[in-house]
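Why do we bother with holo predictions? Because pocket geometry can differ from the apo form. Keep that in mind while you read this record for S-adenosyl-L-homocysteine.
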Amino acid sequence: MEYSVTPIGIIHSPYQEKFGIPRQPDLAPSAPVSLRLLPPFNQPDCVRGLEAFSHVWLTFLFHDTLARGWQPLVRPPRLGGNSKVGVFASRATHRPNGLGLSLVALQGIDLQDGVTLHLRGADLLDGTPVLDIKPYIPFVEAKPEARSGFVDGPPPRLTVQWQQQARAQLQGWPHAPVWLATLIDEVLAQDPRPAYQDDPERRYGIRLADFNIAFSVTGTQANVLEITQLTQN
Ligand code: SAH
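The structure, written out:
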């Protein structure tokens, strides 16, 4: 049996590459993310009443990793990258059909030019195709008593320390987005490093919007080393 699905919209987010994107929604609430609906879904009728909901489920395609297929067993970062669980016991991106599911806050709906949803805390790559939107219904879907296997709470956070040079660099750009400094704090606090790496000498780079953020991690502290603006094309 084969079925086909069609994207109903495309995500616009500061996350230009997978590295650095929080591993679940809401861990970096400062990221300004929007979902622009595509024709023929970009008509006000399709979202009538949705503004009354504070949160929505997004079903989307892990389009950036689809080509890499899937494996029955995966190594979740929460298990230190060592232990394996079944793909269906994980939220891994490499899965049959490559479908993702995120619960995100709906901040507003813009009907000026087509339909754009403003979202908060989405863990989505820029350009992600969205397949469906559904309102979140807490009385059915919120289950505070639920067991959650190896994911027994939020991941440990790093403290984030800015080197003076990095702070000065960011302040030097008159057009740096106002949310950028907070987003850097939120993203680095999540410890974006791959689970098996712990080398204080190592310098990492994360791309947020058109900025590259260089950082290192010493113990439980992330150090913001340098911020460079990438040329926009
Ligand atoms: N909340 C979702 C996503 C969890 S995985 C779910 O449970 O299904 C989160 C990771 O997906 C992020 O860290 C990011 O690296 C990755 N990701 C986000 N958008 C993606 C895309 N379009 N293609 C591939 N990977 C993506």
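The longest strand covers residues 99-110.
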